[in-house]
Design a protein that fits this description.
The protein is about 35% helix and about 25% strand. By secondary structure, the protein is an alpha/beta fold. The longest helix has about 30 residues.
Amino acid sequence: MTKVLTITKKYIIWVFIIIYLIISFGFIHKQESKILCNNLSITVVDSAYNAFVRPQDVLSILRYNNIVPLHHKLDSINLNKLEKTVLKNQSIKKVTAYKTIKGDVKILISQRKPIVRILNYNGESYYIDERGNLMQLSNNYTSRIIIALGAINEPYDILKDINFSKKDSSLDEITKKTKLFDIYTLAKYINNNKFLRALIDQIYINNDGDFELITKINPSVIKFGDADNYDKKFKKLIIFYKKELPKVGWNKYKTINLMYKNQIVCEKR
């Protein structure tokens, strides 16, 4: 009997909660029908790291699409439509818009984060972002990241809709054979490692299709070979820079060769 009473009590509590929420939402909606949007706030939350998108750019998008919420009743403002419209700016990763009972509409913007800039044989230049998507350059800002250049033939328009971060099994064989797939793989590893990020300036693909890493300090060239076993190669490289080079001096070698299994071959100056 006690158990039945407990269940009934819980049921009654939930009924009251639901009724309260219905009444509250109804009150809020009624209030929104009376309140005009008197303030529009646009914030780029990661503006300290990138400057691809500015608040005025977002406002321009709203104006162009005639959906600036100012002086409109709150209940007439379609936040979902607003978010989808702003998200068409391909430098934007995420848009969150919400209303306040005071009549404010707030828009929070997160930008996409590129990890490598591509310079191909056709004279095109574009980014690959941290999620493995191609990204056009911006007139507002140039990101200071690793540059990949050399024997890269892949044009932006053909591969712009491919995501290179998917697992190998979900990418077709043609995509996996593109240099962009390997470039993204190497750039992501470098970007996630503090030491490598500070060391490597460029990824160069020579005419044989092999990778060469151009460093910010001596030795200035690292012959990397293909992208197979890239993680083992990078680990060997880090150990070599941290433990071996300080013993012999940073200026002793011109190149470091990681293309041989289980050994590092260096060319003296």
